[in-house]
Amino acid sequence: MTFAAETGMKTLRELYRIGRGPSSSHTIGVQKACELFLSRFSGADAYGAVLRGSLACTGRGHGTDGIIRDTLGNSVRIEFDTAKEQLAHPNTLDLTAYKDGGEIGANRFYSVGGGAIRIEGEAWAESPDIYRHRNFEQVKSYCMKKDLRLCGYVTETEGTEITEYLCAVWRQMKATVAEGLNREGILPGPLKVQRKARYLYRQKHIDESAETRENRMVCAYAFAAAEQNADGGVVVTAPTCGASGVIPAVLYYMQIKHGFADAEIVKALATGGLIGNLIKANASISGAECGCQAEIGAACSMAAAALTELFEMRIEQTEYAAEVALEHHLGLTCDPIGGYVQIPCIERNAVAAMRAINAWNLSDFLTDTRKISFDLVVETMYRTGKDLPGRYRETGRGGLAKLYKDYAKGKKK
Ligand code: SF4
Ligand 1: does its nearest atom lie under 6 Å from the Cβ of 394? Predict the structure, then answer.
């Protein structure tokens, strides 16, 4: 079973999902698998769940066991199998149903990123592939022939109802940022990470230029959304929970600064969503599969593309902005300390939001000099992700996660 480069593009409803954090693959996807399994074996009197791969390594920090209990009941037997076995996908979940002591059914689920799931041995799919083109080059030549903007291409493919859905997505993004800006205190978990969004938002820099203020505000909005995610709040996967602060931060900032109408923001979300969909279909948006470049890199690319739509730039400029934003995340590893979507994740959303603005700015000047296509960088990201050792793909076994653990152990001696 393969998960990328063989699937087409589905509706943006599958990319932008409204749900509870902290992890789209470890909570939203797992919850969906459990609900589906429950509907199939509702007559069971007991359930068992075995988490494998990344789900086993970082499931506790990501709240995976909690979401399984919430869905299948408190009596479900949960096993964390951290054996380094070869799996078809690093986020693997085996569910078994029992009745009167005997097994009545079992399914192996893969949580493939952004809350999407697959079932081993089944062609089951939440929704069909609806986009007729497979990569940016094909989309671009079609749009240029028809004189269509990318957001228009999304509406042409999905129907005008997608606009209503994207309005709901934008409402939730704004609500998440606003709520995050109002909250203070410590995030759940042993790291005792302090919320910082409100502080950033209120604390004026000692010598604040317009540029420094922009940086502070964009970062405050990104922290706000990412902290809400870390706290299990309602967020929009964009394209995942871990990276859910990047797009809201840049769009929230631009709406306040320039007074864009919600309808204009929604068009930007459509274009950014298309970029995310292309990355998802041709590579991956899963940190467990390809590292953080697939989550934060994809979010940054989507945000940069969204900005070009907001400012009605050319399709080539959208491609350049999306390409630059992804290219400069290549090789970025996923190493959340303790498996919590907090360090480095929260700060990383803020840095990526600023990088999206940087990529968008460059696209205004340098588009016609470029040598790298968006499709090329997407393929590079996928191959780089596959080359990354497993310890850098959401297992909490490498990078910051490993060194911090060693450091904390040393301090205790
Ligand atoms: S390091 Fe990146 S990919 Fe990994 S959990 Fe954090 S945000 Fe997600």
Answer: yes
Cβ(375) to ligand 1 under 6 A? no
Indicate if ligand 1 lies below 6 Å from the C-beta of 55.
no
Q: Picking from 120-134, 231-245, 263-277, 321-335, which range would have the lowest pLDDT averaged per residue?
A: 120-134
Output the CA 202–ligand 1 centroid distance in Å.
Answer: 27
pTM for this model (two decimals)? 0.93
User: Phi first, then psi: what are they for 361, rounded to 5°?
Assistant: -60, -45
Give residue 242 CA to ligand 1 midpoint distance, Å: 6
Dist CA 221 CA 303 (whole Å): 14
Helical H segments across 205-337, by residue range: 210-230, 246-258, 262-282, 287-290, 296-310, 315-327
State in Å: Cα 341 to ligand 1 middle. Answer: 6
Query: For the segment 375-410, what is each residue's pLDDT rounded down to a tens digit?
Result: 999 999 999 999 999 999 988 899 999 999 888 887
pLDDT score at 341: 95
Answer whether residue 238 shows pLDDT above 70: yes
